[in-house]
Amino acid sequence: MLAEIVVPNLAVDTPLWLSLLATAVGALLGALMAVEARSFDFIGIFVFAAILGFGGGIIRDLLIGNLPPLALRTPWYLLVVVLCAIAVGLVGQQVARSKIVLVVLDAATLGLFAIIGTQAALFKHISVWPAMFIGVLAAVGGGIVADIFMRRTPSIALPGPPVALAAVVGAVTYGIDVGVYGLEGGRATMMAIGLTFAVRIGTYLLGVQTTTVSVASAKQHRLIRPIHAGRIGRPPGRRDS
Predict the structure, then answer these.
(1) Residue ranges of the domains in the chain?
(2) Number of CB atoms found within 10 A of residue 73's CB
(3) φ, ψ of residue 124 in degrees (nearest 5)
(4) Stretch 64-86: mean pLDDT, rounded?
């Protein structure tokens, strides 16, 4: 009889090397963001590497009261960020040529951040839906902070690649599987990461973009019904004397 395959629950027992790899992917993307802006020195590159490297994790830990944040309890995370910032500062063009590789790795780690954030909130006895919200923030929070530092509207609120949607898919899949149906954590982890990866890469390859929602389209779909000034305060069927 074949032994049952045990799937590790990465949301609970995340290997240090995997956490550092996820941090490195985010740090490289953050450093490239700073270099492409052509407005920052090395300190600026390091700041953006740190924000995208472990900013989402710090937001997660602050929201659930897990202090000090996990990324600051060991020197390894900061060391990885420094090395990534140096690499981009020295050979940024070569790193930029491998951006498709970073996108693929980012798609894999996006789901990892989402499920770790969701599970961490569930451990703190936070109910399922708020826990999933924290999971999404853990996955995309670093990008939001980086955009704010760039003095621009966070990209997840603008038309573009549906990165936040992929994070939502991962957090909701894991939260419902574990928090509602009580599915074994390892299988829920693989399912959530797999779906997140598929959504992120699928939309990237197909060039899927979110679109704006205008007042005109909202009126057309009866989402907004204007109130005429002449009718304000006048009960239906009643005429002025």
Answers:
(1) 16-220
(2) 12
(3) -85, 15
(4) 93
